[in-house]
């Protein structure tokens, strides 16, 4: 490239009316033009060496999946200025040849969107989100209906068999076992009715839209513990609760999640000792996924095999059958996952947990006013608070 052509390219870069940012192979800013400085209200000195995702986040996709030096379709970005204000822009990504032996960088050419374009893009995002939510609900309801029909079949079969035997005995004038058969019919009907009620309540909770408010998670834990007073007292369970954040959630739904997790820790506790449950939180700053609180609920119970980590979340799937003596319909963890996902989070069994017992990890989006870690206690303060009923 001649000196003249190099100067021409530099002039085109500097004088372009569109904001342009260039990164190196590590996706850190190495150059911006005047239009970028004006749009983002910054100077090159303020942004040089910083990761590009700090200033612009792609809509509908994690930053880490886009910045790899590959040409990508024009995408919608949320752009953040130095003063914290935001605006929307469309940007094209293009590869930039790196220095010898170095990975290629990326150039982003932005085009600011006017008010009408911003509204139209917001409507598109809302429609896509609604369609995605509807698709997920439909997929879930199909799976749920199939599992529910299968589980209801067992008590109904018992009712049918007992009723047929009772009808045959009555027809032959034999009433010796009539009372036992009638009791079997009633018991099967009660089981079917109870399961149907629980399934209905489960479906309503799983498919309802969370009513988000910013609340202390310790209040939610306290409510969940309050609903389990009898179980905690009867098992002599101990709960160690660390400092918990303030975060956006539906109070009733998140209480239900913690009720299920703590209740399961008590139900599946060790045979030769009292259940011990610990609840903690830490802030995870992830450039691709966004800031989130990682909540852990661990116990010293009988544990869950790592190979069955996903199975425990399947609707109406129980690792321990009725013959085990453990009650339940296999809906608790399914409901937990559904509620957490409706909050934009995730929940999973920690298969790396060394034990004893199990540890569940919830990842929940951090509230804007709660993205900083909780303030550390004084050096002499007790690390954890113990709750004992």
Distinctive features:
Beta-Lactamase; Heat Shock Protein 90; alpha+beta; Helix Hairpins; 389 residues; six-stranded antiparallel β-sheet; 40% helix; 3 domains; 9 helices
User: How many separate helices?
Assistant: 9
Could you say which overall geometry the principal axes of the C-alpha atoms support? Answer: elongated
CATH homologous superfamily designation of the largest domain? Histidine kinase-like ATPase, C-terminal domain
Topology as H/E string? HEEHHEEEEHHEHHEEHEEHEEE
Backbone structural class: alpha+beta
Distance between the termini: 78 Å
Question: How many beta-strand runs?
Answer: 14
* CATH domain topology of the largest domain: Heat Shock Protein 90
Determine the mean pLDDT: 75
What number of domains? Answer: 3
Main sheet record: 6 strands, antiparallel
Question: CATH top level of the largest domain?
Answer: Alpha Beta
Give the name of the CATH architecture of the largest domain: 2-Layer Sandwich
Give Rg in angstroms. 29 Å
Share of β-strand residues: 15-25%
Question: Would you kindly provide a brief summary of this structure?
Answer:
The protein is an alpha+beta fold and 389 residues long. It has three domains: 3-113, PAS domain (Beta-Lactamase, 2-Layer Sandwich), CATH 3.30.450.20; 129-207, Helix Hairpins; 210-389, Heat Shock Protein 90 (2-Layer Sandwich), CATH 3.30.565.10.
Secondary structure: elements and pairs:
Blueprint: H1 3-15, E1 20-23, E2 29-32, H2 34-40, H3 44-47, E3 56-58, E4 72-80, E5 86-96, E6 105-112, H4 115-171, H5 178-207, E7 213-216, H6 217-227, H7 229-235, E8 238-241, E9 246-249, H8 251-267, E10 276-284, E11 292-299, H9 332-342, E12 346-349, E13 359-365, E14 385-388
């Amino acid at each position: 490239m001649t000196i003249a052509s190099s100067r021409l390219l530099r002039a085109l870069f500097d004088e372009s009316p569109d904001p342009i940012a260039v990164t190196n192979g590590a996706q850190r800013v190495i150059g911006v033009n005047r239009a970028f400085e004006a749009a983002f209200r910054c100077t090159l000195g303020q942004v040089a060496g910083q990761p590009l995702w700090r200033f612009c986040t792609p809509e509908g996709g994690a930053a880490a999946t886009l910045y790899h030096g590959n040409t990508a379709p024009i995408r919608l970005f949320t752009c953040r200025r130095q003063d914290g204000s935001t605006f929307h822009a469309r940007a094209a990504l293009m590869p930039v040849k790196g220095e010898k032996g170095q990975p290629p960088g990326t150039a982003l050419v932005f085009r600011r969107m006017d008010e009408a374009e911003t509204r139209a893009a917001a409507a598109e995002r809302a429609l896509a989100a609604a369609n995605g939510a509807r698709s997920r609900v439909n997929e879930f309801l199909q799976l749920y209906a199939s599992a529910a029909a299968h589980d209801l079949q067992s008590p109904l079969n018992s009712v049918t068999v007992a009723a047929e035997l009772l009808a045959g005995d009555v027809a032959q004038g034999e009433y010796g076992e009539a009372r036992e058969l009638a009791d079997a019919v009633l018991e099967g009907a009660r089981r079917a009715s109870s399961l149907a009620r629980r399934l209905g309540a489960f479906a309503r909770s799983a498919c309802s839209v969370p009513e988000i408010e910013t609340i202390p998670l310790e209040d939610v834990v306290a409510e969940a513990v309050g609903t389990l007073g009898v179980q905690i007292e009867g098992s002599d369970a101990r709960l160690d609760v660390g400092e918990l954040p303030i975060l956006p959630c539906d109070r009733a739904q998140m209480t239900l999640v913690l009720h299920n997790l703590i209740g399961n820790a008590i139900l599946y506790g060790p045979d030769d000792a009292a259940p011990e449950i610990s609840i903690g939180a830490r802030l995870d700053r992830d450039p691709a996924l966004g800031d989130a609180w990682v909540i852990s609920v661990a116990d010293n119970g009988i544990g869950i095999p790592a190979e069955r980590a996903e199975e425990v979340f399947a609707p109406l799937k129980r690792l321990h059958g009725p013959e085990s003596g453990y009650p339940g319909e296999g809906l608790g963890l399914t409901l937990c996952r559904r509620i957490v996902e409706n909050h934009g989070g995730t929940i999973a069994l920690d298969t790396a947990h060394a034990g004893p017992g199990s540890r569940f990890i919830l990842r929940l989006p951090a509230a804007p006013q709660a993205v900083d870690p909780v303030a550390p206690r004084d050096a002499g303060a007790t690390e954890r608070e113990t709750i004992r009923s």
